[in-house]
Structures are given as structure tokens and as C-alpha cells.
Amino acid sequence: MVGYASWKEYVSPSTSYPYLSKSCSKGDSMRVGDIVTNTRAVWDNPAVPGGPFPAGAVGIVVDVRPDTMNNPPLSNYVDVVLSVEGEKVWCGNYTQGHFEVIA
């Protein structure tokens, strides 16, 4: 996020993110607004193909959702905007285990 004053500027005010004020439930380790790094290679959404983007990119969590498909739930799902070579890369619907909170 080099060159950005804050994560709000990084996410871009011209883009609508309805979940920016939502955080994951108490006890979970990842919240909206956390600064993270990807712990393994990730790809962006199929609508905007690209990747793989190697581990170590820094980004911000923009949404956290509980696992509603498995019983018992296995992990939360997150949407993250990464900074890769100065470009924004949207990574959606990843399990939170793909990322590590760094700040």
C-alpha cells in the first residue's frame, strides 16, 4: 500500500464496498480493515482473470463471511484487496487461512 495515506484511500472511494463496516464475529481472528499478507499464491476473481499472485503481497480485508455450507463450519471466507506491483488485485471468497494478519 505504498503511496496510500490509509486503507480507505487504497480501497478507493469511487468503488462501493457495502461491507466495510462489518466485522467477523467475536472470537474470530480476522476482521474487516485488517492488514494482511497472503500465505500462498492466490488468483483474483474469474470476472477479472489474473494470477497467480505469489505469497507475500500485502492487502486489506474488505469482507468476512462465516462458512454456511459445511456442518460443522470449517473456516470463515474473506474478500481481500491486495497490492501487487502497485496495482489493486481483488481476491474474493478465499478461506481466511490463505492470509495472515500483519497489522
What would the keywords be for this entry?
single chain; 103 residues; five-stranded antiparallel sheet; 5 strands; globular
SSE topology sketch:
Blueprint: H1 7-11, E1 35-38, E2 58-65, E3 77-84, E4 87-95, E5 99-101
Antiparallel strand pairs: 1-2, 1-5, 2-3, 3-4
Task: Give a verbal description of the structure.
The protein is mainly β and 103 residues long. Helix content is 5%, strand content 31%. It contains 1 helix and 5 strands. It has one helix at residues 7-11, and strands at 35-38, 58-65, 77-84, 87-95, 99-101. The chain has a 5-stranded antiparallel β-sheet with strand order 4-3-2-1-5.
The average pLDDT score comes to 76
- Give the proportion of residues in helices: under 10%
Structural class: mainly beta
List how many beta strands DSSP finds. 5
**How would a textbook summarize the main sheet?**
5 strands, antiparallel
Roughly how many Å is the radius of gyration?
13 Å
Order of SSEs: HEEEEE
Tell me, briefly, the overall form. globular
Strand arrangement in the largest pleated sheet: 4-3-2-1-5
Which range does the strand content fall in? 25-35%
Query: N- to C-terminal separation?
Result: 13 Å
Low-confidence stretches: 1-27
- Compute the number of helices: 1
Summary of the model, kept short:
This protein is mostly beta strands. It contains one helix and five strands; from the N terminus they run H-E-E-E-E-E.
